[in-house]
Amino acid sequence: MNSLLGGSNSINNTSSLLQRALSRSSKGRRFNSSPFLKNNKSNKNALFGSTVKSTGNTQKLYYNMKYHAGQVSDYAKKLTEKGEKSLFAKAKESGSTAEVVASIKGFVGQYNSMLQNLKDSGGAAYYNYAAQLNSVSSVNSSELASCGITRNSDGTLSVDDGKLGSADVETLEKVWNGSSFASRTGLWADSIESAAERSMEAKASSSYSNLFNNYGSKGNYFNFFG
To answer: Is residue 68 part of a domain?
Structure first.
């Protein structure tokens, strides 16, 4: 202990191990004050940077996927609702398709974002979801086109505002309330939302496990950050 606290070098030139340990344990300075993390960028990235960045980006992707899938599901339920309070019943009563059109455009926007999230994930399961969605939109491409919705080669959907806005309520109802496109897509979106949530939980659990495993493999607190 005397050799650690005293040392042969001047206290102005070299901090003692005890001083460095205390400095690292100070609130808000645990990581920033460590010479290892301050002066060695590659080691910092190896220990925390790359892992945290990767975990954060992946979690954000799953969060976005869950959100967009949930939105697709909500729009699908709204567009496929039956009865006096449905969008189409209201449109027939009012003579305006504005609310129906807005819901279709909202559906398309969220659908495209969800599809992009599936592709960005790179996972086989999510690729399978994308393939199923592409299959559903492909089968219904002619009906979609009749109201201004074009299926693109990458599976995304595009809206022709003029054609969609001028479509009569009967045509819109046939495509979005009477066919299988919106309802089947909504069911797939429900599954994707649940899968994304499970992936978020699994990723979080794995990240914490890896952090503590790495901590343990380095020894005690002072060795780990020293």
So the answer is: yes
Beta bridge partners of 157: 151
CA 19 to chain centre: 43
Cα 56 from Cα 170, distance rounded (Å): 46
* Domain carrying residue 144: 64-212
Q: What is the pTM of this model?
A: 0.69
Q: Is residue 117 part of a domain?
A: yes
How many domains is the chain partitioned into structurally?
1
DSSP string over 162-174? HHHHHS-HHHHHI
For 63-84, write each residue's pLDDT tens digit.
999 999 999 999 999 999 999 9
Give CA separation, 224 vs 46, 47, 148, in Å. Answer: 13, 10, 61
Does the residue 129 lie in any domain? Answer: yes
| Burial status of residue 30 (CB atoms within 10 A of its CB: 0-12, 13-18, 19 or more) | middle
Dihedral class, residue 28 (left if φ above 0, else alpha if ψ from -120 to 50, else beta): left
Residue 46 belongs to a domain: no
